[in-house]
Amino acid sequence: MIRSELVAKLTEDNPHLTAKEIERVVLAIFDSISDQLSRGGRVELRGFGTFTTRSRDARTGRNPRTGEAVEVDAKRVPYFKPGKEMRQRLNVE
């Protein structure tokens, strides 16, 4: 599901709100999550999961086109760990 599909679904489920209002709410939520992660924090949504960041060390990579060695800088990457309820819903027999 992409953001526009999410907005369309929420608009369908909440006919008293306009698509513009729902778009602003969705963007505000995503911006809040991004801001918290950029500050090194974590975001926990009960029943859904937890967003955190993980550090990746600098390394020597390879350019896939040329095979040339390329230095890759250290960086932080987002990480999502699904919650217990999410895992249970995904593994229903």
Automatic annotation (TrEMBL):
Pfam name, any one: Bac_DNA_binding
Alphabetized UniProt keyword annotations: DNA recombination, DNA-binding, Transcription, Transcription regulation, Translation regulation
A single cellular component GO annotation: cytosol
SMART domains per record: BHL
GO BP annotations, alphabetical order: DNA recombination; regulation of DNA-templated transcription; regulation of translation
Entry annotated with the keyword Transcription regulation: yes
Molecular function, one GO term: structural constituent of chromatin
NCBIfam families with a match to the protein in the record: hip, PRK00199.1
Family of the protein in this entry: Belongs to the bacterial histone-like protein family.
Subunit relationships: Heterodimer of an alpha and a beta chain.
Function of the protein: This protein is one of the two subunits of integration host factor, a specific DNA-binding protein that functions in genetic recombination as well as in transcriptional and translational control.
PANTHER family linked to this entry: DNA-BINDING PROTEIN HU, INTEGRATION HOST FACTOR SUBUNIT BETA
Descriptive protein name: Integration host factor subunit beta
Source species of the chain: uncultured Sphingomonadaceae bacterium
